Amino acid sequence: MKKAKSAIVGVVILFAVWVMLTDTSQQEMLLGGATALLIVFLFREKLAVLGDIKLNPKSLIYMFVYLFVFSWELLKSNIDVAFRVVSPRLPINPGIVKVRTTLKSPLGRAFLANSITLTPGTLTVEMKGEFFYIHWIDVTSDNIEDATKEIVSNFEKYLEIIFG
Q1: Nearest partner of 41 among 15, 9, 11, 1, judged by Cα
Q2: Which of 81, 88, 116, 155 has the CA that lies 20 to 30 A from 72?
Q3: pLDDT digit string (tens) for 30-68?
Q4: What pTM was computed for the model?
């Protein structure tokens, strides 16, 4: 069942990317569908990780909301880092902090790590079990719970619904 689900998700994702990159003529749609099916067939063992994505109305809504949450966090952190660059008086206290995640899915953890890394001012350095080690441009707390709340919690509550 998980293999079938991951294959369906793979075809949908690949076909969606195809549609975004080409026109919507019938010939392009047929070629895109055939290409997506061929790629999923050839790489079906590697796509098993896509079976972690939950496909229900709530998770689909959370996927959409997550795009806005991530965009908002990205905007806030870009502004913060830009102000730190322009104004040398703003404090910079870099360091590596340890945070905890409750995500069980490998794909969910990868999404979380990439979301943290794509947000300016933070960089996921290492993942060990339930702990992530994050380089943070301005460490405000080295307490695991406080750092987790500040860095991880905004993303994790949505990724938990999407990936479990």
Answers
A1: 11
A2: 88
A3: 998 899 999 888 887 877 777 777 878 898 899 999 999
A4: 0.78
